[in-house]
Structures
1.
Amino acid sequence: MRNTWLIAGLIVVIGAAAPFSGLYPLFLMKCMALAIFAIAFNFFTGYVGLLSIGHAAFYGMGAYFGGYAIKTYGVSTEIALLIGMMTGAVLGLLFGLLAIRRRGIYFAMITLALAQMVYFFCVQAPFTGAEDGLQRIPRGKLFGLIDLSNDLSMYYFTLLLLVLSIVVVQYLVTAPFGQVLKAIRDNEPRAVSLGYDVQRYKLTAFVLSAALAGGAGSLKAMVLSLAGLPDVHWTNSGAVILMCLLGGLGTALGPVVGAVMVVLLETELASIGVVKIGSLSLDLSTKVPIVIGVIFMVTVLLFRKGIVGEIQSLIDGYHRRRAEKSAT
Amino acid sequence: MIISTQVLLGQLTIGLVNGCFYALLSLGLAIIFGLLNIINFAHGALYMLGAFAAYLALQLFGINYWYALFLAPLVVGCFAILIERFFLRRLEGLDHLYGLLFTFGLAIALEGIFRDRFGSAGLSYAVPAQLRGLLDLGFMRLPTYRAWVVVASLFVCVSVWFLLERTRYGSYLRAGTENPRLVQSLGINVPLLVTLTYGLGAGLAAFAGVLAAPIYQVHPLMGSNILIVTFAVVVIGGLGSTGGAIITGLALGVIEGLTKVFYPEASSTAVFIIMAIVLLIRPAGLFGQES
């Protein structure tokens, strides 16, 4: 837990200062909402070792339900977040009950197929607004008191939620519950023989992860005032996988680093626009998927531990060498 | 509810055609999974490449449909062989998920390239002159091209089945699926076998793509939609049996077609709902022998 407080403190300091460095609060809030989404994904895939390609369903439905509640019924902000989390949890339970029956590669395919079903549902359902999505979602008042329509107050509220997510997830991961998850990931038959109800642990972790993803979705809906089909689409599941893979699966800080990198990449490429190299002109704004795909491949081939993971193993290696040296 | 026989039979044949595509794709996924132990997420992109290869061959070089039917799988197969040789081979021995993630990235990149180049509107590919018109079967009129797709895919599926179950290459391949090390120690070049198998699976996907080009529009995203349905088909049928993959694919295509007639709202989700039911009743899948 000592590391957790260090990481939380680091994020609080950087986060508190960031809006004064000239970065837009809206951009930072988008990063943070996606970072929470990535933390949720990492909690499951990073620590249980099963790949979910269905997390966009929890995130997107959380965005729709939370956004719909606050827009139509005018609930307060924290209620909208809770509705998002509940949506994610219920959906996660349904997905989990089916998908947990199969392992490895099948698990990934089942979550993807179920998420695609949710996507088709959203295309047809009346409340989602189909192609237009839910627009002009208000941010509401926190506890019915604090108005969050101001970007800066919403920003600090989002930062608080991010730090809270990190602390809670790190607590779960280091607690006995998380230790059992890691044991299942590393050697499932052994965990079974030790008497753990493996399926129940997996399901619980999946539901918790889905709940947090749903919460992240409703947060994003309020931050950007928008919930739409791209949030539920499988490419969004792909994006969250990339964030965690790039940052480092199974590390505390990886998802945050990955989320910032992916959002930065998308906005930077879009804003750079046309680049001229000699007589060749290249419009980068339309190349985002290509670059994302290539980064995916390069990460898998060259640094599977991700940025944070590679740095960590460098530090570990340094410590080990020093310890060996002092021992001789 | 009164449904005309014409509509019913029409949707049934469309379902059968889709079923053929599911069968060809899941067959490729199954043989690749058997030997490489990865789920080839780029399978949909390879199907899309097949359709685009046919389209571009016609536009740029005037190569007609019949040549494209052979050339597109060959070209896409060679492309896949390069991918296997230079990239996928490096992931051997790691967790299966890395293969999936690599091919996932490959699929996104390939789709991105074609979307960037050709836009998101579909391109049409004309039905070849010999296959236009309708076949009069007495009780219904069947578009000739649909009949051709069914015949051609079934022929290819049966040939692949024959290749796997009745030839020397097939016996090596099946043995390699069981125990690659032992096969290698008997003097069979397993890495070469793996490469060829990936090429074969990719070729099957591209063949389906060429067949699909005149029916559906040639579209950069045509592959990802069909691939996710194929995944559900694979979950239902299991990856263990070649025959199982073919039969499940065809059956689900037909069921999907029937849903379009009786309850159109559910037609896009029918296969997923069946998958959920199968998971509840038989968690290992219909033909599954999962360890």
Note: DSSP finds eleven helices and two strands in chain B.
2.
Amino acid sequence: MIRLEKRPEPSKLWSWATPPLAVILTMIAGGLMFAALGKDPVAAIRTIFWDPIFGEFAFYYRGQLLVKAGPLILIAIGLSLGFRAGIWNIGAEGQYIIGAICGAAVGLAFYPWESFIVFPLMVIAGAIGGLLWAMIPGLLKVKFNTNEILVSLLLVYVAEFILASMALGALRNPDGSGFPGSRNFRSYPAAFNDEIIAGTGMHWGVAAAFIAVIFAYVLLARHQLGFQIKLAGQAPRAARFGGVNPVRLVLFCLGISGALAGLAGLFEVTGPAGQINIDFNVGYGFTAIIVAFLGRLHPVGILLAGLLLALTYIGGEAAQSALGLPAAAIQAFQGMLLFFLLAVDVLTNFRVRFGAGEAA
Amino acid sequence: MKRRSLLAAGVAALALATGGAMADGHEKVKAGFIYVGPIGDGGWNYQHDQGRLAVEAHFGDKVETIYQESVPEGADAERAITQMALQGADIIFTTSFGYMDPTNAVAAKFPDVKFEHATGYKREHPNVATYDARFYEGRAVIGHIAGHMTETNKIGYIASFPIPEVIQGINSAYLHAAKVNPDVEMVVTWVYTWFDPAKEADAARAMISQGVDVIMQHTDSTAPQAAAQEAIAAGERVFTFGQASDMSAFAPKPRIASIIDDWSPYYIKRVGQVIDGTWEQSASWGGMPEGEVVIGEITDEVPAEVKAEAEAMIAAITDGSYHPFTGPINKQDGTPWLAEGEVAEDGELLGMSFYVEGITSEIPN
């Protein structure tokens, strides 16, 4: 008989060991699935996990890993602060969209003015756009005690409609002969978020993500506000007695996560995506929630989790075209990763006991 | 050493290294296909994949094909296309409108790889060609059938994105429905997706509950067909048309006919040209005469005389004696567009951003 016994406090060892264990279990279970589909499981796992980093075309894929991981990390860092404090911003996707729209709108308003000031203004507008969008659930929560999970989530759909209307209306490329979509920022150098070093995938959004990781780390480890965030999450009553202002904390956590999501959107629309279009958003805001938890809400963990998830995307795509794996198999594989991570998490909080219970 | 220098020079260097691969290495021509949805959608992507299989069947050992499905339009598309070029594809077909800018961006980096973009208009580099099919020819035929079949005089249209290709279809279907039934009303529902079975089914159900009894779609799944089937089971009278693929599983009703995209002739032709080394940039727009737009079996739910008229129209479009956009046609606001007997120019159709007179709703803006 196997029993689970609650640990007095989460195991330090297991909280570090479970993510790699989950990855190994995913490789085994995924390998079995690939074998069942009639593909060589070793080749499939190697294509997904090894080739993008060390394979023949790694010089291209490594950069793409950064491109894919950048927005995930940037958004997840913001979300993790709120999650730690028990403030649940589920609508980062919407803040990402609004940030992209606001930033792009500022850039397009200046078109075709070539000045170094254009891009910084767009960055600021992107951050403000995301911040304001996140302030809606924030203010509703502090004024009327609404549930920020619902409000922020539902605002994603509102943002998507605004995006569609912008792509078809106000921001539509006047030279695009009626097709939806804004001008492409590639053809407007002053507003284009180019790679900082060509061929590396390192654009300003990736740089911003790394900076955000460092700031979050310092904030949580050294700053009073970081302490308040952790306290509010772990012991809300104690936090209140300890002088934490809950209104300020809600607005700060939602604001910072909104601003970072808005920045991610701005960097994406001016760089890899290139233009505002109806289907500009591809779910980074939702995937970032997974990244935040996969990274245990720890800045360094989020950095690694973002890179790992990006790897499964990039490697998964490569496996599709190189090995002819169906897209659904790759999605199932990614699902397995999350499943196993949550499943083995049990080891962090519980001790596994074999044999009959002692005088149970 | 080689790796290091490649790293330094980035993708452009590799493009040179792999671009000429056909000359220096592999004998088989490698053709890549990028799909916007799953190949099992039973519609648009399924038909493109049928085209890919036709290429394999036609050339046998001379070609190898690779594909990637469900590639989102936007930033991810650029990587997927680059990936295929890196893997040594000689020709890459990108089969959705939203791949237009990514296709051109990748083409700039791989001058020796041929790129074929479906339904777009940008050919920024000599190695980019575009191709499309005159779906509006098929719309004319099913519009004609729909005008006869509706009893409520409401024809529903599940529209994806307000781009010229879709607007052409709505106009063509309406013109030919109104020709046989002047009281007909076009109910257009915009779903802003190419493939989303849930949204498509919702749109179909909503329109049926508004009294629509004939549904057309410009989306890729069979969900509207299934929704109509449910409605029939509940005692409603509803008809649909297969879209992109025959969707014959839903015949004889609700599916009473279909517009089939047959990409095989074009794919075989273009891959053959890569094999022969005669590939050149072009903008292809084939239709019924080229066999790219085909009307699937018209079922017996359609009265025989209507079916005969539809077949006559197919014959006339195929031999070139009839163009679905032949004047007199006014724009929605009443201003004249085509004079009596005048035929629309391709350029005008490719940029079409207005409804014709008689459609009461507005194009979202």
Note: Chain B has two domains: 2-133, 135-257+294-350.
3.
Amino acid sequence: MKTFSLPRIVFVVFCALVLLYLILPVLIIVPMSFSSTRFLTFPPPSLSLRWYQEYIGNAAWMQATRVTFAVAALTVLIATPLGVAAAYAISNSKMRIMRIVHMMLMLPLVVPIIITAVGIFFVYAKVGLVATMSGLVLANVMLGLPYVITSVVAGLQSFDPAQEMVARSLGMNRLRSFFAVTLPQIKASVLTGAIFAFISAMDETVVGLFISGGQYQPLTKRMFTALRDEIDPTIAAISTLMTAASFLLVLIASTRQKKSGP
Amino acid sequence: MLALASPALLVILLLIVLPVGWLAWQSIYHDGFTLENYRRILSEAIYWRSFSLTFQISLLVTLLALLLGYPIAYAASVVPKGWSVLILALVILPFWTSALVRAYAWLALLQRTGVVNQFLQYLGIIDEPLALVHNTFGTVVATVHILLPFMVLPLYATMQKIPHDLMQAGASLGGSPSHTFWRIFLPLSLPGVLAGTTLVFVLCLGFYITPELLGGGRTVMVSLLVSRNVELYDQWGAASAVGVVLLVSVLVIFLIVGRFIPLDRILGQK
């Protein structure tokens, strides 16, 4: 095959354009957030930190930020141990029922999010969990579980369970042998799962739209409401910060995984 | 072992099985059993139109995602490692960016005074700004963007496992590059195509953020029908029935596809 044949050039250009289409919208918010004007002109006439100041100086945005971080942190703290325990059970059990359990734990990925959101709203309305912090955290724990479980099940697949057997034959009980032998070897996959649960909670929009309210509204809900009315460049600033946070976390997850790889 | 999984299972039971079950119950029970909500879906044009629009948009989005995603996945699977890492990074980074943020970016790009219109006017291709958003066009452009990684990742996972020797063997037997592609590579990549298209189609059926923000009230996909019945009209029964039909469609698709490839292989990509 010739290196610079015409079909090959067309193919390379096509791929480059598709990749541009993928990444450009994610990057375009950065210059927009530093623009000095309210109107979205590109390139911006001059640079300023105006929209970042607007964001930081606004009590409602700050409250929403606190809610988002509290929800994401609590989600990770609850979903990670629950997910690791479930993944361990799935990987170490030969019971047929475990396959069904595994499938049920993946349900949050299967059920369309709008149905999940409306269903939770109905239930929360009955039990008084609408517009509460605990309601928001619980819903995000449910949504984050599949990420933790998928990651840890994959981690346990490359772990030799015989090692844990050895520890137990030397007199450790199951719990101690898990913490002393197994956990240190799968910690990269646990961390990855926890990070994805955090990002999922930080980015979650649709469920929060239905069940959050009052002082417990996450950032995404306030952004969504603001977007319906007008295009406020403050949202570009917040989006840039959220995207930077996601990128950073994905970077940590991927470098950690490489380090622990064989 | 079951005991270890039970806390997670409890969360799933209380926060998704129970709510969805409740939703199904409400769709058939309102002061007694009734099929009124389902009868309405069958008889009223607005419901029919919404379901048919949703299926059409989902088909279009899936097709576009396949057309754009296949070459990308192919490229990532044949180029040297450094390049494939770069390609995959460009796919995965948007994947982990909030869908809301990406919808906002498209809103800013496509609006009347947005970057795309300004650029086209600057080039003199158009005089008047085009209506690129607040319609089906804008919804499709943004939805394809958001769902494209769900196509590329399963495709890449499948293609990566296709041994290169096979193509070389085909070439050594006199097959042209295009011949070996169509006869060897493409058929072997079909499981990935099935996984990717299923995932994108199903996700698109229930998509909410883009039609709501970029559809301009005209692109009433099923998810909007559900939310409006809840938020605007307080019609929980009607919303539930629409939701049940949507959920059943999704489950049927998964069951059919699950006969050909294991479901965890599809979902593992998410």
Note: The mean pLDDT of chain B is 88.
4.
Amino acid sequence: MSCTIKSENISKSFGTKKVLDSIDLDIHSGEIFGLLGPSGAGKTTLIKILTGQLSQDSGAAYIGDKDTRMLTGADHKRFGITMDNFGLYERLSCTENLKIFARIYGLPNNSISGALAKVGLTDAAKTPAGKLSKGMTGRLKLARAFMTDPDILFLDEPTSGLDPVSADEIHKIILSEKARGKTVFLTTHTMTEAEKLCDNIALLNEGRIVEYGMPAEICRRYDHQRMLKIHLYDGRDMELPHNRDAAAVLAELIADGKAETIHTTEPDLETVFMEITGKELSA
Amino acid sequence: MKNICAVFLKQVSDTLKNKTVLIQFLMFPVLVIIMENAVKIEDMPEHFFARLFAVMFVGMAPLTCMSAIISEEKEKNTLRVLMMSNVKPAEYLLGVGAYVFVMCIAGTVVFAVVGGYSGADLALFIAVMSAGIILSELTGAVIGVFSRNQMTATSITVPVMMIFSFLPMLSMFNDTIRTAARVTYSQQLSELINGIGTTAVSAESVVVISINFVLAVVLFTVAYRRKGLE
């Protein structure tokens, strides 16, 4: 499968602070890639470099086979970007907001209604952007990113600050874009979002990638965190490591008729990240 | 050209819903119609208010509108989105600048009609006003580019706008102020407008306006190089 987004040894500093340190990524066509990390880990800086908004100090980044420092207007048309700090014209309606970009991209007017329909904002087409709820604002930003029907979507924290229902709506939109063969690069600090959406993820901490791969595969690497949770008839709970030593204890509990329920806990990305960095993802 | 048109049309839609900017274009043209028809004082020069308000309009409207529009787009990060959509900084500035220019020329037409200009006097009036609008736009753009947000822009715009729009009026009452104000383009615009039909265009006015223009361009270049449009 061809590599759509590639970064080779990218480093970036602001003043004396190193924000990105030797970042290598290979993101294939048609996959959803998630970059996870706590606030300040360098996620937005990396997305800016990959979209040509910012130049790296060293290393190289490519969209297709083109260096991101050489991207032109035609290249920008190939990818849609939503960033948390990308604004909307608050006095203008959803349609008027999109009309600006339809003119810039030379798109027909029906592209506006198509983009609004795709994110479920047809009924709010005439509502000023400033009067939309946070979830609808997020969807309008997605509609703007979808206008050119781009091959690649860069979504910077697309569900940040949203309630679970609004976040779920955006997840469905992202998954439908993947089903249409689009490549999605998203940043998030929500591990459930990454586990639900992403084919591959990278865990970013203090500018360095500390883990990389499929979410389930990464969790399996930290299998030693798997625990046996036993609830006893006397109301107590026990936790045992998932190993041979636990088997004898467990057999005894069962033989004595003390164990009411037994289940295993799998490590998730949050606990993996905690183990690697000593920090919480949502920090 | 396509992007300049898109920015221009965006500004048309936005300003119709932006009372702060819209009032700048309407205030003095409406005021001049009222004052010219309502106030008649003996010995007052003919079309006094048309000439006075035309200079105030040119020193205020383009300057405040440019700084307000640019600083708002920077603060709300809409400018970043435009830049990411392949709108070049020059295209953005030309689009917004063209819009402000057209709106101010519409106001100028009101002043010209109320002021009773016709023929060569009308052409000279519009030429003088156009030069003033461009200079004020450049000054407003410098403030907009320099400011991070609307609050910073307003705090710089108000004193600068007061200097350029009110000095010509104050200089009518005080010779010292008039002497000092001669280095500003708005005072020279005032002298030119008041001299239409009676005095030839002075070399001093042309030189001062030209120097002001060069200074505005230099300031804009410095501000743009230091701050950019983001």
Note: The CA atoms of residues 233 and 260 of chain A lie 5 Å apart.
